[in-house]
Amino acid sequence: MTINDSAIQQFRDRLRGPLVLPEQADYDEARRVFNGLIDRRPAMIVRCAGVADVIASVNFAREAELPLAVRGGGHGVVGSAVCDDGLVIDLSPMRSVRVDPYQRVARAEGGATWGDFDHETQAFGLATTGGVVPTTGIAGLTLGGGIGYLNRKHGLACDNLLSADVVTAEGRLVTASADEHPDLFWGLRGGGGNFGVVTSFAYRLHPVGPVLGGEIIYPLERAGEVLRFYRDWSRTAPDEVRADATLLSGPEGPALDIIVCHCGALEEGEAALRPIREFGSPMLDTVAPVPYATVQNLLTPVFQPGLLHYWKAGFLREFSDDAIDALLNFFGADTPAPFAAIAIEHLGGAVSRVGAQDTAFAHRQAQHSVLVLRMWDDPAESEANIAWGRRCFHAVAPFLEEGAYVNYLGDEGEARVRTAYGANYERLVALKNAYDPENVFRFNQNIKPVAG
Question: What are the two backbone dihedrals, phi and then psi, of residue 16, each rounded to the nearest 5 degrees?
C-alpha cells in the first residue's frame, strides 16, 4: 500500500517523538539491531517518546495496512524488532526506571535495558532476575520468561512481574495484573510479544547486595571430569547459586569457563562455592565479593553489538555422561575461534517451584539448558559458521527435551515455535484470538490466531 506524503505528515504531527524515514541520515542507525546478520529496511520507524506515540503508531499501521514490528532492546537474535516495508515502534527512547525502595517495586518503561534497570535498583541494594548482558532489553527477556543469574533464588523475570501496561492491537491501553485482565497477565509471562506493546513493567524487587561471583577457567583437556563434577554439584547447590559452564573457543584457545554468582550471605557463598573452586586445579579463579553489576557485565566484552550471531538452544532432558561425551567429542581443539561456545545454563531452584501452567512459560522442571553460540564479523563466513552451529546442535540434540526457550529461538519454523510454548500453546492461541485476532503483532515467535 502506498502512503502519500500528506498522510505521513499528518502522522508525524501526531507524534512527540521523531518519525524516521529511509531518506533520512539517521535511518541506517535506527534500523540496526544487535545481531549483525539482520538487514531489514522498514518503511518508517517511530522513536516513541511515550505511550501516546505507541497508540498513534498502532492505529496508523492498522489503518494504513502496514506490517508492524516492535523494538525494545533490539537484542533478540532472530531480529524480529525490525521488519521490511513496515512500521517499527521503537521504544528505545522510553527507558525510565522508577524505584520504590520501601515497597520494593520498580516500574520501568518498555525500552529500558537491564543495565538501566540494575543501575537504578542497585542504588538501593535491590534487584530482580534480569538478563546476563546489560544491553538486553527488559521487555523481550521478560515476555519470553527471563532467565538470569538470580533465577534459582528469585525465579524468572516473568515470575517477578507484578503488572504491565499494554497497548493492544486496537490501540487501547490496558493494565494486566493478577487483578486486571488476568488472562493477558498470564500470557505476557512467557508468551512473547504476541499480545500487544508493553509500554511499562512493574517488578518485585529483592535485597541483593554484593555477590560472590566471577569465573573459574579450566583447560579443555580437563573439561570432561570437571563437567561431571559440575553436573552433580550444581544439582544440589543452594538456591542462591547459579553456575553456568561454557565450553568456549576464544582468542586464547579453547577452555571450559564456569561463571558463578552467589546472591546470599558472603560467608555462606564461600562454603557453597568451595567444592567447585577447589576441584581440578583451575587455570584461573576470579571469584570474589563484587557488586552485582560486575557479574552482570562479565559477558559484555563478548556480546558486542554488530557481530553476526547464530544461536540454537534447548533444555537438557538428562545431563548424562553420554551427553558430556557428545559435547566434548564435537567441541575439540579444532573448534573455530573466536567465538564459538556451548553454554550450559543453571536452572532449577525457584524456577522449578512454579507450576508449568501457572504462567505461559512452561519449561519449569529442566535443571540445565544448552545454548550453542557462534559469533563472527565477516559476512562472507556466514554460511560456514551457521553450518558449524547446526552441526553442534545436532550433536547435543539427542539429549534435549522437545521444548525450547523462546528467547533463544531462531527462525526455526512453526513446529519449533509450538514446542517452545509447550503445553500452554493452545491456551495461548485462545488468548491471541481474544487480543490480536488479525495477528497484527506477528514479528515474534508467532502464535497464530485461529479464525472463529
Answer: -95, -35
The count of C-alpha atoms lying within 13 angstroms of the C-alpha of 382, restricted to the half-sphere facing its C-beta, is 10
pLDDT, block means (10 residues), the chain with 452 residues: 86 97 96 95 98 98 96 94 97 98 98 98 98 96 97 98 98 98 98 97 98 97 96 97 95 92 97 96 96 95 90 93 95 82 97 96 95 94 94 94 91 91 95 96 96 59
Which residues lie below 8 Å from residue 267, measured CB to CB, with a gap of 6+? none
DSSP characters over 8-55:
HHHHHHT-SSPEE-TTSTTHHHHH--S-TT-----SEEEE-SSHHHHH
The span from the CA of 187 to the CA of 191, in Å, is 5
Closest CA to 370 of 403, 334, 337: 403
CATH of 5-90, picked from 3.30.43.10, 1.20.1250.20, 3.40.50.670, 3.40.50.150, is 3.30.43.10
Residue closest to 131 by CA, chosen among 108, 164, 104, 165: 108
Sheet with 97-100, edge to edge strand ranges = 97-100, 105-109, 197-204, 161-167, 173-177
- Set of cell numbers at residue 247: 565450553
